[in-house]
Amino acid sequence: MNKGKLRRQRKNDLNILVKGINLQRNNPEAITATARRLFSLLEIAKKEGNIDSPIKFLQSQINLSLDSSGTTQLACKKGCSHCCYIWVSATAPEVLYVSKLVKKMGEKVTKKIRQANDFTKDFDFETRHEHPNPCPLLNDNVCSIYNSRPSACRYAASGNADICSRAYHGLSNESIPIPTTHIRGSQAYSLAFAIALKKSGFSYHAYEFNSALIRALDTKNAQKAWLSGDDIFSNVQKETVDIFSDSTAQQFYQSTF
Ligand code: SF4
Hints:
The chain is mostly helical. It has one domain (3-256). It is built from eleven helices and four strands. It has helices at 3-19, 28-48, 52-67, 92-105, 107-120, 151-155, 161-167, 180-199, 209-218, 222-227, 247-256, and strands at residues 89-91, 138-139, 142-143, 206-208. The strands form two sheets. It has a two-stranded antiparallel ribbon with strand order 1-4. The protein has a two-stranded antiparallel sheet with strand order 2-3. Strand 2 and strand 3 (142-143) form a beta hairpin. Helix 2 (28-48) crosses helix 11 and helix 5 packs across helix 9. It is globular. The protein starts with a helix and ends with a helix. It binds iron/sulfur cluster.
């Protein structure tokens, strides 16, 4: 791409990013703009040995999109935590970011995560929902890292808390009425971040939160090690579906760069 085109693309991207990805409709341009920005921030993170910038950007863009999505029928409120009892997915940068907070929270929290992991580590993505168990970062039914919680937790919204209370605790097979905007947000931002991670040469998978956190906490200089290319999460349980097994995701990757 020549310099003029690149300049126009950057200007266009900035205009798009100010509004975030519009979750009311399909938004391919906004997904590629977000992926390009995340890629730039990941490259800076590599140099600085610090993962915070791409994660803070991702979190603020997701908040921006969800806040302006116009979804009003949510049953979710503080103290409702049914969705915190099942498998939680998080990308490696999100795990590294949260692990730094956990270290500051003290040994008691780390112990809680180890205990939770002792219970959840034997269940994979397909079977974990049959064994509900609270996320160790829940405190009196409130997320103790709410502003820093993984992206997956931000999309876990519902229009009916009664259904959640049954379905997330293994008492029924009802489908959770997740608003379309949240499903679209999950798909769009997961894809944008996966594209950026892949382009940066990192693993783009979504890992099981408890075991990935333990791996990060038990690895010396985990953040620096991962950012310098050591895939410390390589044998941690992850979601079984590879986002790039889908041809649309591959096309998005091609059209982003
Ligand atoms: S990180 Fe927070 S929101 Fe996510 S599952 Fe754990 S307690 Fe719930």
